[in-house]
Structure formats: C-alpha cells, structure tokens
Amino acid sequence: MDIRARLGKNVRKLREAKGWSQEDYADRAGIHRTYVSDIERGRRNPTITVVAKLAKPFEVQPGQLLD
C-alpha cells in the first residue's frame, strides 16, 4: 500500500473512532478541512510537520500514523 494511502486510512480510522467530523478534526489539528479530506483520500503528500499536527489530536506519535 502506498504510504499516502496508509496515512489516510489510519487518520480516517482514528478520526471516526473518536466520532469527529473532518471539520472537528481539522480544527483540533490546526489545518483546513479540505486538506484533511485530501489526506484521507491519499491525494496529498504532507510534510513531517503536518504529520505531527495530524497526530497531536489523537495523542499518538507521528510514526504511528504511518504503520
């Protein structure tokens, strides 16, 4: 599986487990909702800084989003 697809799948799974909409999650992560949508669909290639922002609301290490 492509790493972008893996990241998107993991973000979506964690977000849905929390019961958050993409907008709720984007607000918590400090990024735009459409960017979250693109990440979940594997259409973005985020920087490591963005991956860290994505991990923070879930209270996980950035690397765990790539497993």
TrEMBL record:
Keyword Lipid metabolism: no
Name of the protein in its database record: Helix-turn-helix transcriptional regulator
SMART domains: HTH_XRE
Gene3D superfamilies xrefs: lambda repressor-like DNA-binding domains
Sorted UniProt keywords: DNA-binding
Superkingdom of this protein's organism: Bacteria
Organism annotation: Novosphingobium aquae
Domain HTH cro/C1-type: 11-65
PROSITE patterns: HTH_CROC1
Stored SUPFAM superfamilies: lambda repressor-like DNA-binding domains
